[in-house]
Specification:
Elements: H1 3-22, E1 26-27, H2 30-37, H3 46-56, E2 59-61, E3 64-66, H4 70-80, H5 88-101, E4 103-109, E5 113-119, E6 132-136, E7 153-157, E8 160-167, H6 174-184, H7 191-194, E9 199-203, E10 208-211, H8 228-238, H9 246-255, H10 257-266, E11 268-270, E12 275-277, H11 280-293, H12 315-329, E13 335-340, H13 343-355, H14 372-380, E14 385-389, E15 407-411, H15 414-417, H16 421-426
Parallel strand pairs: 1-6, 8-9, 13-14, 13-15
Antiparallel strand pairs: 2-3, 4-5, 6-7, 7-8, 9-10, 11-12
Helix pairs in contact: 1-9, 11-12
């Protein structure tokens, strides 16, 4: 073994595996993985996935709980392994939707009736029911077997690979691991692993970058945890006998099971065939906003707040992530009012929401307030979204509107124009 390989294994890969084990991931050897996969082209741990699909799924009919048929369990596994016909990102989106929502399968009930019931791949409501595994040197065959690859570490939830980690020796730039990860996602290599990946990480112990499947090199990011008390408490418990490294901090921040659930469920989106995962600033900004939303004053109102963004820092996506999390986490049907002060900004942000799928199949134009009168009519209803210029609040004498649902207002460029007479009219 050469020096670089020795340092990669002993300074990065083995400490990562030991930390993940301490975090609750069950280690499974490459040989045991091979037994479950069927072949090295396939990447699902089928025995674990089959057992978990049986364990976390029941359907209720006539007041009684029933197990899904063995045939539907097998079909669900096959259906999850989407072919790459439409390319990596489109395929990844189909798999992501299945992980988030499950799939529907028919079962015979009562007097031979066929009814469809939802089968889940991950139990989001009862996270303790899911299982996490980790393996190393995960050898995967390419389609032509000429471009096989062997990622250093792969993480699984319920037997489904959700993260890939590429390790390097401390003196090798982390960008080399990024380049290797991007190469392995190409069609000639092993995209059939990365179609399942929600997080990909490159590390050399002292530097770490993360992304999601299909992310170009220039958009790989660093994670700086803003919940320092949580992180330090976790590190003290998990790494008690040495000084924590940057790799340790990132693995705890990104792969603690509670963070995995949060990141995958709320902070991944698809914007016109581009898959994105949040930056750390967006993650913690949305968290702080959620705390504010959860608190009411004595009149039942919530406090407002300001999130400062620099130009190009992703404020539109912060809004998308916030709306996505609120809709997925809370019951009810709030109306989100997205405020801007220029037509081009209004179109840009409404297009972003449309491209990210938050408007369903409805075009963004249907949610844009065409005039002050149109805005009033929209506010009297309960649309999912309203995109409007602050200038459309131009009815100072309009009667107050008392909705029977929550209205959440998000203002872009709030420092520039979201105040004064139009803001008074809005309130």
């Amino acid at each position: 073994m050469d020096k670089d390989a020795y340092l990669e294994i002993n300074a990065s890969q083995r400490p990562a595996l030991a930390l993940l084990d301490a975090m609750g991931y069950t280690y499974i050897s490459p040989a045991d993985c091979d037994k479950q996969r069927g072949s090295r082209y396939h990447v699902l741990l089928r025995d674990i996935l089959r057992g978990q699909l049986r364990r976390i799924n029941r359907y209720v009919y006539a007041g009684a709980e029933n197990e899904f048929s063995a045939a539907n369990i097998e079909r669900a596994m096959e259906d999850l392994d989407e072919p790459l016909t439409d390319g990596l990102v489109c395929t990844s989106e189909k798999i992501y939707d299945a992980l988030l929502l499950g799939k529907s399968y028919p079962e015979t009930v009562g007097d031979g009736k066929m009814l469809s019931f939802n089968l889940r791949y991950i139990d989001w409501d009862n996270p303790q029911n899911n299982v996490f595994h980790v393996t190393e040197e995960f050898a995967v065959d390419s389609q032509d077997r000429q471009h096989n690859a062997r990622p250093d570490i792969v993480l699984f939830i319920n037997g489904i690979p959700f993260a890939v980690i590429e390790c390097k020796a401390p003196h090798i730039p982390v960008e080399e691991a990024v380049g290797q990860m991007i190469r392995n996602q190409q069609a000639a290599y092993i995209p059939h692993l990365f179609k399942f990946a929600q997080l990909v990480v490159a590390t050399n112990k002292n530097a770490v970058k993360y992304a999601t499947a299909g992310t170009p090199k220039k958009f790989w990011s660093v994670w700086k945890d803003q919940d320092d008390e949580w992180l330090q408490t976790r590190l003290k418990a998990l790494v008690p006998d040495r000084m924590p490294t940057e790799q340790d901090r990132n693995i705890v921040s990104l792969f603690s099971p509670e963070r995995v659930y949060e990141l995958i469920r709320y902070f991944i989106l698809f914007d016109a065939n581009v898959k994105k995962v949040c930056r750390y600033q967006q993650f913690f900004a949305v968290r702080e906003i959620m705390k504010t939303i959860a608190e009411n004053d004595e009149h039942g109102n919530r406090q407002s707040g300001v999130i400062w963004h620099t130009q190009g820092s992703g404020k539109s996506y912060s809004m998308v992530f916030l709306a996505q999390k609120i809709r997925r986490k809370f019951a009810g049907s709030p109306t989100f009012v997205i405020l801007t002060d220029r037509d081009e900004l209004n179109k840009q942000i409404s297009d972003t929401f449309e491209n990210c799928g938050l408007l369903g199949k409805t075009k963004a134009a249907q949610f844009i307030a065409a005039s002050g009168d149109d805005l009033v009519q929209k506010l009297k209803g309960n649309p999912s979204f309203i995109f409007t210029l602050i200038q459309k609040f131009n009815k100072p004498d309009a009667a107050p509107i008392y909705p029977d649902h929550d209205i959440i207002i998000m203002s872009d460029e709030a420092h520039r124009s979201q105040y004064g007479i139009f803001a008074d009219n809005m309130m």
